[in-house]
Write a structure and sequence with these properties.
Layout (H helix, E strand, L loop, with lengths): L3 E2 L9 E2 L3 E4 L6 E5 L6 E6 L5 E6 L3 E6 L8 E4 L5 E6 L6 E5 L2
Length: about 100
């Protein structure tokens, strides 16, 4: 449930919990896979410092990522009621809000 597989591999041999990919906007090439969540991702927002970002997902969690180390999220926090559909940082970066689907 909620798993992606690497293209060209038989199901079950290379299953990963894959959120997606961070992609370089100038050429469309994938920089790194983002693996932290099970199921779909619905939200992403960049921190005002431009060095971290947050993702929100169907699995009722949100994760904070550091662009200098994308092999795993800095932290993953469980939401309360439902899928995380929206995330927003305030411009002064003091607060981050999230909205869950209920």
């Amino acid at each position: 449930m909620g798993r992606s597989r690497i293209d060209g591999q038989p199901p079950g041999e290379s299953d990963v919990h894959s959120l997606g990919f961070l992609v370089y906007s100038r050429n469309g090439k994938a920089i790194s896979p983002l693996c932290a969540h099970v199921n779909y991702s619905f939200a992403l927002t960049w921190h005002p410092d431009g060095l971290t970002f947050a993702t929100g997902n169907q699995d009722k969690t949100y994760s904070i990522w550091d662009i200098q180390n994308l092999s795993k999220s800095v932290t993953t926090i469980k939401g309360n009621l439902g899928a995380i559909r929206s995330i927003y940082y305030t411009s002064d970066a003091r607060f981050m809000g999230m909205a869950e689907l209920v």
